[in-house]
Write a structure and sequence with these properties.
31% helix; 3 domains; Jelly Rolls; three-stranded mixed beta sheet; Phage tail protein beta-alpha-beta fold; elongated; alpha+beta; 13-stranded mixed beta sheet; 20 strands; 30% strand
Length: 366
């Protein structure tokens, strides 16, 4: 509370242009606490109302500020105003500038908080990374992937991951108290949500294990155990067969949702809005890489090569394009590229000529 009072005093001095350089620095230091943002918002609104400024943070735009700013014609009109009106107009301009400056400070601090309260993990081609998050959840990050974890999860009571690439998650249970005025539910508890966000959708879970791959403008989700709720950014396509597994009302405007149960495997593209359900030949095929293998059963060679490109960063040129539709069965160790390419050549009876990261695939001449 003492800090909040200090912030109010410093902010008022900032608006009045009486703050020293040291006091502005102190204001920024105090604003580092993300939990103060709502209080700061309230302080700003109180200050604006006290100065008779009709303004809402939600409606702030530079267009509004510019519309209130005098043009050359307006400036000349101001010069011809009586002194009293001129002073009122100048005060109005100063207040508008103060509002914009105040929001700019809050925005800068929000950016600062976002950058300093996240931790980023990256993998290169051909490597994986085992990660234990601060909440106890375990993640295996696949090759050529990036994951960002919000380390402030305890304060905001929400666990959030941003994912580009592929990862396997084993989410831990984290309990949090429920604020409920009902006497019989006063001491009840709930599980803290865990959310994985990709460019196409968000995977919302409580405690479960699942695989998420976000590549080539689509997201692939395989649920191994537990239950997850997928929330898509554009609406999900609906069918009668999906009614039992699809949430009734939309969770938010322009969004829709679908539940997955163990064994469910879907691919969704936010661009094409195409939803595909997969019937797995092998129960754990989508997560075979977690155990150190790349397993493909009756899969198109084109699909295999796409995944190998994602993992190892290789580009493939087919001497005969009809080979891409060939159905193949492959079991490859998740090893270095040399081992993988040698086993592929032997198993598929093909020749692979490599030039830097570009590989030409040919049929083996008999």
């Amino acid at each position: 509370m003492r800090n909040l009072h200090k912030i109010k005093l410093l902010y008022e001095k900032y608006l009045n242009r009486t703050a020293t350089h040291e006091e502005v620095e102190e204001l920024f230091m105090l604003l580092r606490d993300r939990n103060q943002f709502q209080h700061i918002h309230n302080i700003m609104e109180d200050e604006w109302e006290r100065n008779d400024i009709d303004f809402s943070v939600e409606n702030l735009s530079w267009e509004k500020v510019r519309s209130e700013w005098p043009t050359e014609q307006k400036i000349s009109d101001v010069r011809e105003m009586p002194i009293e009106k001129h002073a009122i107009w100048s005060l109005k301009i100063r207040k508008i500038v103060a509002v914009a400056a105040g929001v700019l400070i809050a925005g800068m601090m929000l950016w600062w908080w976002t950058k300093t309260n996240t931790k980023e993990y990256r993998t290169g081609f051909g490597e994986t990374m085992e990660i234990v998050l601060s909440d106890g959840s375990r993640v295996l990050l696949n090759a050529n992937s990036k994951m960002t974890w919000n380390t402030n999860w305890q304060n905001i009571q929400e666990r959030t991951v941003q994912l580009e690439g592929e990862a396997f998650f084993e989410v831990s249970h984290q309990r949090m108290p429920v604020n409920n005025s009902s006497p019989d539910q006063k001491d009840s508890i709930s599980l803290m949500p865990f959310q994985v966000i990709t460019s196409d959708l968000s995977v919302n879970v409580l405690g479960t294990s699942f695989n998420v791959a976000s590549r080539r403008q689509k997201t692939d989700v395989f649920l191994k155990s537990g239950e997850v709720l997928l929330v898509a950014k554009p609406p999900l396509p609906r069918s009668k067969n999906d009614e039992k597994k699809t949430a009734g009302p939309s969770l938010a405007k322009h969004m829709d949702s679908i539940y997955l149960t163990p064994g469910d495997h879907i691919t969704y593209s936010g661009i094409t809005r195409a939803l595909e359900r997969h019937e797995e030949k092998l129960p754990d095929e989508p997560t075979s890489w977690v155990d150190g293998f790349l397993v493909y059963e009756n899969e198109k060679l084109e699909t295999v090569l796409q995944e190998l490109k994602d993992i190892y960063g290789k580009s493939f040129i087919m001497e005969d394009s009809t080979m891409l539709s060939r159905q193949v069965d492959l079991g490859l160790p998740y090893e270095d590229w040399y081992t993988v390419s040698e086993l592929m050549s032997l198993s598929l009876e093909i020749e692979m000529e490599e030039n830097n990261s570009e590989i030409t695939v040919k049929k083996l001449e008999k």
